[in-house]
From TrEMBL:
<dbReference type="InterPro" id="IPR003018">
    <property type="entry name" value="GAF"/>
</dbReference>
<dbReference type="InterPro" id="IPR005467">
    <property type="entry name" value="His_kinase_dom"/>
</dbReference>
<keyword id="KW-0597">Phosphoprotein</keyword>
<keyword id="KW-1133">Transmembrane helix</keyword>
<feature type="transmembrane region" description="Helical">
    <location>
        <begin position="199"/>
        <end position="217"/>
    </location>
</feature>
<dbReference type="InterPro" id="IPR003594">
    <property type="entry name" value="HATPase_dom"/>
</dbReference>
<dbReference type="InterPro" id="IPR029016">
    <property type="entry name" value="GAF-like_dom_sf"/>
</dbReference>
<feature type="transmembrane region" description="Helical">
    <location>
        <begin position="238"/>
        <end position="258"/>
    </location>
</feature>
<dbReference type="InterPro" id="IPR014265">
    <property type="entry name" value="XrtA/PrsK"/>
</dbReference>
<keyword id="KW-0472">Membrane</keyword>
<keyword id="KW-0808">Transferase</keyword>
<dbReference type="Pfam" id="PF02518">
    <property type="entry name" value="HATPase_c"/>
</dbReference>
<protein>
    <recommendedName>
        <fullName>histidine kinase</fullName>
        <ecNumber>2.7.13.3</ecNumber>
    </recommendedName>
</protein>
<feature type="transmembrane region" description="Helical">
    <location>
        <begin position="137"/>
        <end position="158"/>
    </location>
</feature>
<feature type="transmembrane region" description="Helical">
    <location>
        <begin position="264"/>
        <end position="284"/>
    </location>
</feature>
<feature type="transmembrane region" description="Helical">
    <location>
        <begin position="170"/>
        <end position="193"/>
    </location>
</feature>
<dbReference type="InterPro" id="IPR036890">
    <property type="entry name" value="HATPase_C_sf"/>
</dbReference>
Length: 706
């Protein structure tokens, strides 16, 4: 029993809360009426139920008649049952779920039974013991309605399609709070056989929560309004739960040992407490344990950061886009990875001929300077073996996970915008590396970022590998076409040879006749012209092999090549040294002649072309420099050294390809640097004669290892 002053306080508090809830639901009903379509077919029933809830609140505050309050509460419950049925009907489930209507009919019947019982009790006089039994019955009726309402709300949300749950989340939450409060209220009343004044005074809180949930559900951005505790708070709470559970278990075991009794049990109790405390001091502060707790809470207490359906659709659109306006595949690869983390730019590095990573594509990142060897081959093992994603901020801070020590190139660490390295691994083979630029809102990577980036990296690696295979097949097809052309050339040569043979036989018989001699001269002239034209087309092209490597004076080769352009003042020998190289003289001259001729073709008539010879460690370096039209990075990367691709009318398109193959056959290297509108520089490196033994020793070691 509570005293009169306390009763007055609880009554006043109940009136204030009921009045606040009444104002809230009435205001919400007026606000929601023009927006009732946001609840689809349930809009009108929901608004009507809100009005009935407001009427019930007014009756609870203004009326002292128990029958009036009971009638108002029955009307409220019936209105919300109708609203729940309308919510079921909004997605068509009232037709497919047969038990829904019987349950609602049963709850309506129970409400009417309760109202009839209250009317009977108010009109007739009964013995007090009968009134106590009747009170229990009326409370039981309310309990049945509360339980039935909660069951309906649970089925309403849990049985909804996944895409329909967003619209039902907040209405279902509000109704669950309303009927859950009633369930507790009437349970306490039934167990105590009296009305709980204190708990009854707080019913207005449930009404306020109902109004708030429905207001959120009726808002346009209700899908974005979710309870999302911060990860830090959740982690701390979970940590406290773990520590609390540990302490409870420790105390329970200690109490059990104490209950066993005896001196030996006390010794065991003290030993257990000592060991358990030491375990807590050593294990709980561990970074590994805390990292594990963070991963567990992130995986199981949070909705995933990424909408994987949307990520996959966006990835497919980016990679699968085609047409004239579409970016090249390499740039689309970078964009697909950058879209995941919101990075504004990126680079694609792919393995070159020597296994080192070189720049293959830029996406929105034109100002960064990338060296010719972007990442050496020796640093690629962790990325290739473990698909390790490197956070460059951690690398700059000197933090590396155990077993994942990587060597990051200095130019990347020095570039402040470089944020992460994402390897593209296909069948345990690294086919590329994406460098991501730092987004505006940079954050630390977590397990979900790593998982998604690894999966996307594997998928992109398969696209790149497939594209490389297709290019190899296309190149093979072009070689077949070239072989067919050579077959036609051989056929023409055979015809010419037949003509010469026939001419020689006839000359033995008719050489003294003037007519024959005149015809013979015409035939010889025509055949010679055909052969010269054919030789002019094929003179610079071969199979990329060299007959013999021997010591060759590099300076003499440079001067001989310049002599071939003696009549052209554009070609200038800028600098030369006297050094011996191991090469094939004819092949080396052929390469330099081709590069100089291409430089002349790309330059204006008054623009000089320079040839220089310098010493470069164990190599001699020939440089052909021009200030002509230059070439784009895409052309140098994808077309310059591709056979049968020519920008010249009538060209075979294998000059640059053969030049590179000849240099490789001489154990050298051909590199290109070019900028559109600025010019090009071709660098030919061939080994010095003094370094021949060194290269032969390396080759012998490689053969032995193989």
């Amino acid at each position: 029993m509570i005293g009169a002053p306390a009763a007055l306080i609880w009554s006043g508090l109940g009136s204030v809360l009921h009045l606040a809830g009444t104002i809230a639901v009435a205001s919400l009903a007026f606000w929601l009426w023009p927006r009732r379509s946001r609840f689809a077919r349930a809009g009108v029933p929901v608004v009507c139920a809100l009005f009935m809830t407001a009427i019930w609140g007014v009756a609870s505050v203004a009326s002292g008649d128990v029958l009036v309050r009971s009638f108002a509460e029955t009307a409220r419950n019936l209105a919300w049952l109708a609203a729940v049925y309308a919510l079921f009907a909004s997605d068509g489930r009232h037709d497919s779920l047969g038990p829904i209507r019987p349950v609602i009919y049963a709850l309506v019947f129970v409400e009417l039974m309760h109202l009839g019982t209250d009317i009977g009790l108010s009109r007739l006089a009964f013995d007090p013991r009968v009134l106590e039994v009747a009170f229990d019955f009326t409370v039981m009726f309310r309990l049945l309605v509360a339980v039935g309402g909660l069951v309906l709300v649970h089925n309403l949300y849990a049985g909804a399609p996944r895409d329909g749950r967003a619209a039902l989340r907040w209405p279902a939450t509000g109704l669950a709070v309303l009927w859950a409060f009633d369930l507790n209220l009437y349970t306490v009343a039934y167990l105590g056989s009296k009305w709980p004044v204190e708990l009854g005074a707080l019913r207005g809180i449930a009404t306020l929560v109902l109004a708030a949930c429905l207001a959120i559900g009726g808002a346009r951005n209700s899908d974005e309004l979710r309870l999302r505790p911060s990860r830090a708070v959740t982690f701390q709470t979970f940590s406290l739960l773990v520590i609390g559970g540990y302490l409870v278990a420790m105390v329970a075991v200690a109490q059990w040992l104490a209950y066993v009794g005896g001196d030996f049990a006390r010794i065991i109790e003290l030993a257990f407490l000592t060991l358990a405390s030491a375990f807590a001091l050593v294990v709980l502060p561990s970074r590994r344990v805390r990292g594990w707790l963070k991963v567990m809470t992130a995986k199981h207490f949070f909705q995933h950061r990424y909408d994987y359906r949307e990520e996959w659709l966006r990835f497919t659109r980016t990679i699968g886009s085609g047409g004239e306006q579409a970016l090249p595949l390499a740039e689309r690869v970078v964009q697909a990875v950058a879209d995941v983390t919101g990075s504004p730019a990126g680079l694609l590095l792919t393995p070159g001929d020597q296994g080192d990573l070189t720049l293959a594509a830029r996406w929105n990142w034109r100002d960064v300077e990338v060296p010719a060897v972007a990442c050496p081959a020796r640093a690629l093992a962790p990325f290739e073996q473990n698909a390790f994603i490197a956070d460059l901020d951690d690398q700059r801070a000197g933090f590396t996970a155990t077993g994942y020590e990587v060597e990051v190139p200095a130019w990347l660490l020095a570039e402040p915008r470089a944020w992460a390295l994402v390897p593209l691994v296909h069948y345990e083979r690294l086919v590329g590396m994406v460098v991501l630029a730092r987004p505006q809102l940079a954050r630390k990577f977590d397990w979900e970022d790593f998982d998604l980036l690894r999966v996307i990296g594997q998928q992109l690696a398969s696209y790149l590998a497939e594209n490389a295979s297709q290019e190899a097949l296309a190149e093979s097809s072009r070689f077949e076409d070239f072989h067919r052309r050579i077959a036609f050339v051989m056929h023409d040569i055979k015809n010419l040879a037949s003509q010469f043979s026939l001419l020689a036989r006839n000359a033995e018989l008719h050489a003294d006749k003037p007519e024959f001699r005149a015809d013979m001269l015409v035939t010889l002239r025509n055949s010679s012209d055909k052969l010269n034209a054919l030789l002019a087309r094929l003179s610079r092209y071969g199979n990329g092999a060299v007959d013999k490597l021997e010591p060759v004076p590099a300076g003499e080769v440079a001067r001989t090549v310049i002599e071939r352009f003696r009549g052209n003042p554009q070609v200038v020998l800028a600098e030369t040294i006297e050094v011996m190289v191991t090469a094939n003289r004819h092949s080396l001259e052929q390469v330099l002649l081709h590069l100089l001729q291409n430089a002349l073709d790309a330059s204006q008539p008054d623009s000089p072309v320079f040839l220089s010879l310098l010493n470069d460690g164990l190599n001699a370096r020939f440089e052909v420099l021009d200030s002509g039209c230059g070439m784009s990075a895409e052309f140098v990367r994808n077309r310059l050294f591709k056979p049968f691709v020519s920008t010249k009318s009538g060209g075979f398109g294998i000059g640059a390809f053969e030049a590179r193959e000849l240099v490789r056959a001489m154990r050298g290297r051909l590199d290109v640097e070019s900028r559109e509108g600025l010019g090009s520089r071709f660098v030919v490196r061939v080994p010095l004669a003094a370094a021949t033994d060194f290269y032969q020793t390396l080759a012998a070691k490689d053969q032995k290892v193989a």
